[in-house]
Structures are given as C-alpha cells and as structure tokens.
Amino acid sequence: MAEPILRVREIHKSFDSTGVLRGVSLDIQEGEVIVIVGPSGCGKSTLLRCINGLETVDSGEIWLRGEKISGRTRDLYRVRQKIGMVFQSYDLFPHMKVMDNLLLGPTKALGRPRQEVEAEALRMLERVGLREKAYALPRTLSGGQKQRVALVRAMLMQPDILLLDEITAALDPEMVSEVLNVVIDLARGGMTMAIVTHEMRFAEAVADRVLFLEDGHVVEEGTPEVFFHHPQTERAQQFLRSFTYASKRDKGEEQPKNNAGD
Amino acid sequence: MDWSFMLAHVPDYLAGAWVTLRFGLYGILCSLAVGLLCCLARFFRVPVLRQIAGGYIELARNTPLLVQLFFLYAGLPRVGIRFSAETCAVIGLTFLGGAYMAEAFRSGLEAVDRAQIEAGACLGLTRTQNIRYVIFPQALATAVPALFANVIFLIKETSVFSVLAMMDLMNVADTLRTSGGRTVEVLCMLIAAYLLILLPVSVIATRVERRLRYAGFGDQHSV
C-alpha cells in the first residue's frame, strides 16, 4: 500500500482532565473517503479539530504527506493551507460577498493572482449550482446555499485533504441532500476526505471506510457494507439501532432500545 | 432676550467653536490610535504592554478629566515638565479618550464569533491576515455605536479645557457672562453652539450604524 496521505498515531486529548480522545490511530490513503460516526461526545469533532491544529494533542503524532504536523505552533497556518475544513455553522464571512469569501484564502494565504482564482471560483460555483450568487452577500443565501459556498471556499485552497464536521447538522431536512450531493461529487473526483456525520445513508453512500468511535476509542472499523449491515461489535449494533424506529403496528415486538445517543 | 447682543457675539462663539472642534478632533484622533494600540496589546496578549494597557485604562476611566488636566498643567511643571495649554488639552483628552476607545474596540473584538476566527484560520491565513480581513472588520462594525458615543462624549468633555485658560466655547461664554451679565442669552447661545456641533455627529452616527447593519454585518444567523 502506498504511503498514506494522513497518518494519525495514538493521539490523546483531554479537556479538564476528561479524556476525549484516548489513543486514536488512523491512516487515510490518497483519494480515500473515511466517515467517522459515533454517539455525540465520542470525540469525532475533536479528532478532526486535532488534525488541523484547532486543538493541540496531549500526546501522539499526526503526519501529513510524511511531514509531522502535530506539536508545532509557529507555522500552523502553512499546514492549514493544505487541510480544508468545513463546519456545521458554515461560517461564511458575513461582511464579504460570496466571491470575496472565496478569494480570501487563495489570494491572501497562497498569494495566487486574483483573476485566475476568480475564474476558477466561477467554474466551481457553476458546478454546485450557485453561479448567480457569486456576488451576493451571505445573508441572502439559504443554509444549504451557504454550506455549498463553504465547500467551494475550502476546495479553492486545493487542499490535500478535506475535513467535514457535521456539515448538514444545522440544515433544514430538505436542504441536506443538495449539500451532500456536492460532497459525493467531490468524492467521485478523487478528493481525500474525513467526514463526521449523522446522516447514515449518506455515510454508506460516500464512505470507502467507516470508523465507529466511542468514548475516545475506535471501536469498529470497516467497509460501509460490513459496518452498516453486519456490524461486528455490540456497541456498533446498538448505535445503529438508534437510527431505526419500531412501527406502532408491530404490536408485541420488543422496542429497540434507543440508548446509543445521549 | 437681547437679540442684538446675541447677534453681536456670534463671532466670539464661532472662534470658541473652532477651538473646541479643533482640539476635540485632535484628541479624538489620538484617542482612537491609543485605544486601538491598547486593545491590540490586550488582544494579542503582548507581555508587559498588556498589563500597562490594563492599568492605564483603569486609571484613566476612574479619574475625572478635570483632575487629569490639573495634573498635566499644574502638577507636572513642579517637576520640570512643562507643556502649553493646547498640548495639555490634547494629551488630557487623549488620556481619557484612549481608555474609552480601547474598551469600545474590545467590546467589538469580543463580539466576533469564535467560529469566524477558526474559519479564517482554516483557510491558512496568518494571525495578522485573519485579524485584518476577518476579525477586525466585524469587530469594527460592532464597535461603531460605542465609538460614536465616545466621540460625542469627548467633544462634550472639551468644556473642561476652559480651566487651561483656552478660549473654547465654554470659556467664551463664561467670559461674556462675567463681564456683561446677560447670563440667559449667553448660556442659551452656548447650548445652541454645542447642539449645532453634536447633532450632526449624532445623525451621522445613526446613518453609519444603520448602513453597517443592513450591509450584512453581524446578522448571519437571521436568515
């Protein structure tokens, strides 16, 4: 197997002496899409935030393309230029038009010429169906539109890897698929991604590999076929059951216990 | 009301207004600079400077401008440091105003959503770039009402300049009152003069605030 693009080794992270990550290891190959699932509070978001240095790890190491990126504090911004991240709350800059949101990183952080990036930005907006919003202010966009812009903003940095942290959690249900279809499109284009999500059908559709995280440990890891249809561990089975409901017409059947989430 | 008396003294008030406005403006501009520097020292947690800024802000905000001016004008010459009245006025106003401006900037910076700062960092911006393009414009929009309130407050505070024997609006009125005795006319004109200066500032402040609000600052979550 080729050298993984991202290598996470035994990382630990505590907040106020509460262990959130307790020895998590993970390799991501170029072009691979891994989906991280698990109950809330299991450390999924913290894992992503440690990868691009928004949180510092207590111990363990993270390597990007053979370069150690954990533990450094001075030129963290260089590392982040290669790691894209999109959050649940979109976080477009409200005082800038969509286009200025898109141009900021490539022109200021990477120093690329404005015209070249602008042409590229327009092409990508076209691809996600937002060409006509290029010069609108973020507040005139719907949540789904904002999140598509946020994805384009991250992609325009031409990152080595894209981290998506519950990017549809704040959206109205009818807007979820317009965002996730963009992600699937990116995955088809060979983008390397680590995705935290609660959308299980999306996870199954997009993942090359699924990681089930609980209490700061990787409890189960496998292909989406195995994980979603034949989960190996008791904890994973319980977690997946929490996404199904008993029908009121199945009288007498045992209710599935919904105790995986919290 | 003695209208001819009032009309005859309009030029005196114009001269006083010029002093009030000119030294008020110098003080305000210097206050903005001092306030910004203090605020950045605290925001970047610059060692030593940050503590100095903190101490200065408390000292300046918790002592009256009148006392500060007396210290500069009457106290410092005793130890051999002598400034002109005008210099004392600008230094004094800056000393007071800088602290208030620093607090206004700070309220703006603290109101910027942490997620915005992280979003800027995730784009690979350096800390300085992040502040310049992402954080500061949003902080400024939030701080504008407080900054304008300070501008109005500081222009009113210039009335203390009269203790430095500067012929500002307050001193012009005081001199006329004690020499001519038409107290009501003199004071009505004084009030009118301050209103003529400050009402336009208030109107501009309201317009700028409204413009910033509708231009899309700070209401990201309202859609």
Attribute tags:
heterodimer; A: 262 residues; alpha/beta; Rossmann fold; six-stranded mixed beta sheet; four-stranded antiparallel beta sheet; 10 strands; globular; B: 223 residues; mainly alpha; MetI-like fold; 9 helices; 0% strand; disordered C terminus
Short description:
The complex is a heterodimer of chains A (262) and B (223). Chain A has 262 residues and is an alpha/beta fold.
Task: Describe this entry's structure for a reader.
- The complex is a heterodimer of chains A (262) and B (223).
- By secondary structure, chain A is α/β, with parallel strands linked by helices.
- Chain A has a single domain (6-241), classed as 3-Layer(aba) Sandwich (Rossmann fold).
- Chain A is built from 9 helices and 10 strands.
- In chain A, the strands form 2 sheets. A 6-stranded mixed β-sheet of chain A has the order 6-7-8-3-9-10, with helices on both faces. A 4-stranded antiparallel β-sheet of chain A has the order 2-1-4-5, covered by helices on one side.
- The model of chain A has no long low-confidence stretch (mean pLDDT 91).
- Chain B has 223 residues and is mainly alpha-helical.
- Chain B has one domain (3-214): Orthogonal Bundle (MetI-like fold).
- Classes of the chains: A alpha/beta (262), B mainly alpha (223).
- The A-B interface holds A 52, 54, 76-78, 80-85, 87, 89, 91-95, 104-105, 108-110, 137-143, 153-154, 157 and B 113, 115-116, 118-127, 129, 133-134, 137-138, 141, 215-220, 222-223.
Number of domains of chain A: 1
Overall geometry of chain A: globular
Number of helices of chain A: 9
Q: What is Rg of chain A?
A: 19 Å
CATH hierarchy: architecture of chain A: 3-Layer(aba) Sandwich
What is the global morphology of chain B? flat
- Which structural class should the secondary elements of chain A be placed in? alpha/beta
- Poorly predicted regions of chain A: none
The fraction of residues assigned to DSSP E strands of chain A is 15-25%
C-alpha Rg of chain B (nearest Å)? 21 Å
What is the CATH topology of chain B? MetI-like fold
Q: Give the H and E element order of chain A.
A: EEEHEEHEHHHEHEHEEHH
Portion of residues in helices of chain B? Answer: over 70%
Mean pLDDT of chain B: 89
Greatest chain-chain contact:
A-B, 33 and 27 residues
Coarse structural class of chain B: mainly alpha
Sheet with most strands of chain B: none
Weakly predicted, low-confidence segments of chain B: 218-223
The average pLDDT score of chain A comes to 91
The helix fraction of chain A, in percent, is 25-40%
Number of helices of chain B: 9
